[in-house]
């Protein structure tokens, strides 16, 4: 069984990808970044939802250690970017580099993300950024587009069945101004 570190962007989006990878035979370790989530109370709610998902799946998560001000400083010059623009590309890179660093420390050689389940995110860009993050640390990247095959719709049924908290915006302070795009 191949060990795989799965970057879980949020618990609801983690449901279908995690179950699919488990069913393919991967030994999945979940990783949560979290430093992009604003405000603090929202970060706590999403982290608790992730822990609830992990209890259902029977695994302990790896929690990212990046402080929120580290993420804020990194993206500060891109504050005016629209959602889906350069700030989001940098945000993906920060999250996936955090995941790659955790995988390297744990001796897990394969990396993947749940981000591609979102109908609003650029899956090709995410896979390219993930492959670069993995390659820098000598890891392999598992390319997936989880929204294929109605993945997002199926995830809605799964998180509802599990009773997980579902957010109404992507995550950072800048995305609060935007309507439901997660
Ligand atoms: S909108 Fe989402 S992906 Fe874009 S910077 Fe904010 S948290 Fe990251």
| Percentage beta strand | 5-15%
Secondary-structure arrangement, i.e. CATH architecture: 3-Layer(aba) Sandwich
Could you tell me which ligands this complex binds, including any ions or cofactors?
iron/sulfur cluster
Please tell me how large the radius of gyration is. 15 Å
How many β strands by DSSP? Answer: 5
Assign a percent range to the helix content: 40-55%
Q: How many domains, in number, for the residues?
A: 1
| Strand order, largest beta sheet | 3-2-1-4-5
Task: Report the oligomer.
Answer: single chain
Any idea what the shape is? globular
Could you give the distance between the termini?
31 Å
> What is the typical, i.e. mean, pLDDT?
96
Derived from helix and strand composition plus strand pairing, the structural class reads alpha/beta
Briefly, what CATH class?
A: Alpha Beta
Largest sheet: 5 strands, parallel
Order of helices and strands: EHEHEHHEHEH
